[in-house]
Amino acid sequence: MKPKFRVITLAAAMISPIAFLISPMVHASGAVAGATEPTQIMNNIELVAGVAKQAEQVSNQLLQIQNQIQAYQNMVTNTLNIPNQIWQNADGLLNQLVGIVNQGQALA
Questions:
Q1: CA 85 vs CA 24, 88, 90, 96, 99: distances in Å
Q2: How far apart (Å, rounded) are the C-alpha atoms in residues 38 and 32?
């Protein structure tokens, strides 16, 4: 029994360093980020497609926000012009009133 044990031990002692040196060279490799199986590759493709869709959604949201900001700027501009519009109407009505009063005084 002992000689057989020595042979196995000796063989293991000789193979272990070789296996240790070779093991870093042996690794899974694939075309898409290290994926080796078609399922992994398809999953990676789906993930990339999902990220692309999310990027498109973010882009659309940014456009919507930009449009809202422009709408608010227009509202502010229009709101600032309201006093001028109201004053012009009031000014015209006051001038008409002055004219009516003058006519009334002329008749009296």
A1: 81, 5, 9, 17, 21
A2: 10
| Local structure of 65: helix, strand or coil | helix
CA gap 84, 108 in Å, rounded: 36
Write down the domain spans for the chain.
Answer: 43-99
**Backbone Cα Rg of the chain:** 43
pLDDT in tens, the chain (108 residues): 466 666 666 666 666 666 555 555 555 555 555 667 888 888 988 999 999 999 999 999 999 999 999 999 999 988 888 877 777 788 888 888 999 998 888 887
The pTM of the full predicted model, rounded to 2 decimals, is 0.44
Rounded CA separation 93/85 (Å)? 13
**Tokens describing residue 9:** 């031990």
